[in-house]
Amino acid sequence: MTIDHSTSFAIWITGLPASGKSTIVSALKPQLEGLGLTVEVLESDEVRRVITPTPTYSEAERGLFYRALAFTGQRLVAHGVTVVFDATASRRVYRDFARSVIPRFIEVSVECPLTTCMERDRKGTYLKGQRSESLTVPGLQSPYEAPSNPDLRIDSTTTPSGDAARQLCDLVKARFL
To answer: What is the pLDDT of residue 4?
Structure first.
């Protein structure tokens, strides 16, 4: 069987913690598979358990983590797998590095006010930040650098995840398929 590498690409879905990234990814993956694509989701919490099982979230550790995440995605794309990054990647430099090693790349900004993210937060990330149990929560104590010019902006307060996934699939079809 021959793999058609020309159809593989990567999508980085970024936004504040609890902005709705994972919900959109859950709706997106089956839609992409419905287009005949082999899809792998690289969800930051899952990958972090392997790369940095006891994370400190220091700048140096985050830099290493996101380079490793981008490298993993690049290797999958090189082998014909479509990659969806479900990761905050709070600094533009992390996402820019991924774009530099993955030529067929889409960046999606999931936009949601910090107060809404805090209300939605089921993992307790913001609560830990407010209690000073974590000192590096993006958007709270640590800066979050939203994309300057994303390929797609999604307001997760007004756009249902299924609609967001359809918008993203439309972009994929227009750009890559």
So the answer is: 54
Q: Could you report the per-residue pLDDT of 7-22, keeping only the tens digit for each?
A: 899 999 999 999 999 9
CA distances from 100 to 71, 87, 92, 93 (A): 11, 17, 12, 10
Taking the whole predicted model, whether its pTM rises above 0.90 is answered as yes
Q: Where are the domains of the chain?
A: 5-176
Non-local CB neighbours of 33 within 8 Å, separated by 6+ positions: 39
Topology of domain 5-176 in CATH is Rossmann fold (3.40.50)
